[in-house]
């Protein structure tokens, strides 16, 4: 069975971009692949963070993943810092990575603009640690949203460089995109993202979600109710494609193009379908939050399963780069 790896940062409330762009896809893949999913806490400290709330954010993130269906009987779920070999391999990859390649990364440039006062080396090195996360499991596929394609391409490049220099070791993993790989925020312009303050939270109460949807940007060419809309330019329609059933998507598209339905009517259908899907997840989050040991035990056993895999891979890597001292064991 091919192996899959992907991760999510514990940086705050999970939004529906994360959900349809990544998490829901992760759940769909568990029956076809050996799946390893990670709460990437070392990635989360590349921006300023509150240390006191980090553990809560890690557990909250894992709780949501489990509520969505990523339970230990179906996949491996663990926390990045619980398997320190990830950072060890990242250091090794640092030593074969040209600085210029990292400086060219789109996410680094964007985050650099957002965090001008804190452009730290970790922010620059983020894709190297991500490459280590993936390659340490020799994963063949990486299910991510569209914003992460460049990082997975970089990861393939790292694998190529390492293999050329030290002999074939790592596969070159491929991106797997979900059917909704890029959800824009309620502003209709930028990627839905916590830092842009344009998110719809997966755990937000229905009334709050409706308030956000009601005022969310739609097709910019549609000024009046009687104007025909252009669904291909409308983020609400993209969300329909992620949440509504095929016949409703077709109806909505047709009715929008002919001005048979207004934007509010269209949003009402989306809202109904969205709540139908995320309501049960919210209920499961509440149930699981009542038994935190269910989550901590899953993460503990997940890390143990990972350590078995990475121990062998790191042995191979240390040996290939010449730092494995056989005499140490004796
Ligand atoms: N808007 C999105 N549409 C589709 N997929 C998305 N992902 C994130 N935003 C969207 C995918 O979710 C997975 C986890 O991503 P992450 O942990 O890197 O979260 P994020 O991108 O940091 O979330 P934010 O809200 O965008 O945080 P900030 O504002 O801090 O940058 C990934 O597979 C990602 O592609």
Short account of what is shown:
This protein has 330 residues and is mainly α. 55% of the residues lie in helices and 7% in strands.
CATH fold group of the largest domain: Rossmann fold
Portion in strands: 5-15%
Domain count: 2
Task: Indicate the radius of gyration in whole angstroms.
Answer: 21 Å
Shape: globular
What is the ordering of alpha helices and beta strands? EHEHHEHHHHEHEHHHHHH
Mean pLDDT: 96
Query: Order of strands across the widest beta sheet?
Result: 1-2-3
- CATH architecture identity of the largest domain: 3-Layer(aba) Sandwich
Structural class: mainly alpha
| CATH 4th-level superfamily of the largest domain | HUPs
**Biggest beta sheet attributes:** 3 strands, parallel
Any low-confidence stretches, pLDDT <50, length ≥5? none
Number of strands: 5
Number of helical regions: 14
N-to-C span: 36 Å
Fraction in helix: 55-70%
CATH class assignment of the largest domain: Alpha Beta
Q: Which cofactor or ligand species appear? A: adenosine-5'-tetraphosphate
Your description of this structure?
- The chain is mainly alpha-helical and 330 residues long.
- It has two domains: 3-180 and 291-329, Rossmann fold (3-Layer(aba) Sandwich); 194-286, Tyrosyl-Transfer RNA Synthetase, CATH 1.10.240.
- It has 14 helices and five strands.
- The strands form two sheets. It has a three-stranded parallel β-sheet with strand order 1-2-3. Strands 4-5 form a two-stranded parallel ribbon.
- Strand 4 (141-144), helix 8 (149-166) and strand 5 (174-177) form a beta-alpha-beta unit.
- Helix 3 (54-68) packs across helix 13 (292-321) and helix 4 crosses helix 7.
- It is globular and about 80 Å long.
- It starts with a strand and ends with a helix.
- The mean pLDDT is 96.
- Bound molecules: adenosine-5'-tetraphosphate.
- Residues 8-9, 11, 15, 17-18, 21-22, 144-145, 147-148, 181-183, 191-195 line the site of adenosine-5'-tetraphosphate.
């Amino acid at each position: 069975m091919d192996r899959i790896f992907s991760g999510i940062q514990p940086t705050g409330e999970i939004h529906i971009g994360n959900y349809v762009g990544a998490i829901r896809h992760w759940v769909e893949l568990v029956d076809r692949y050996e799946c390893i999913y990670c709460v990437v806490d070392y990635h989360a400290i590349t921006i300023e963070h509150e240390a006191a709330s980090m553990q809560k954010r890690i557990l909250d993130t894992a709780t949501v993943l489990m509520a969505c269906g990523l339970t230990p009987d179906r996949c491996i779920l663990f926390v990045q810092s619980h398997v320190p070999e990830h950072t060890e391999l990242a250091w090794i990859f640092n030593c074969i990575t040209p600085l210029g390649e990292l400086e060219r990364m789109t996410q680094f440039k964007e985050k650099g603009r957002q965090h001008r006062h804190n452009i730290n080396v970790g922010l620059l090195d983020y894709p190297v640690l991500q490459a280590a996360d993936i390659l340490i499991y020799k994963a063949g596929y990486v299910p991510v949203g569209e914003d992460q394609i460049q990082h997975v391409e970089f990861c393939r490049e790292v694998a190529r460089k390492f293999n050329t220099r030290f002999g074939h070791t790592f596969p070159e993993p491929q991106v797997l995109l979900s059917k909704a790989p890029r959800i824009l925020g309620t502003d209709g312009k930028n990627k839905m993202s916590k830092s842009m303050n344009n998110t719809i939270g997966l755990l937000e109460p229905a009334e709050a979600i409706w308030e956000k949807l009601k005022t969310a940007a739609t097709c910019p060419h549609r000024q009046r109710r009687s104007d025909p809309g252009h669904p291909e330019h409308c983020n609400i329609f993209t969300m329909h494609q992620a949440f509504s059933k095929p016949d409703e998507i077709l109806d909505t598209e047709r009715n929008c193009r002919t001005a048979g339905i207004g934007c509010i009517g269209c949003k009402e259908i989306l809202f109904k379908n969205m709540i139908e899907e995320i309501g049960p997840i919210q209920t499961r989050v509440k149930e699981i939050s009542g038994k935190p040991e269910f989550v901590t035990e899953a993460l503990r056993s997940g890390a143990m399963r990972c350590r078995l895999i990475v121990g062998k891979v790191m042995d191979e890597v240390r040996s290939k780069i010449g730092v494995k001292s056989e005499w140490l064991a004796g």
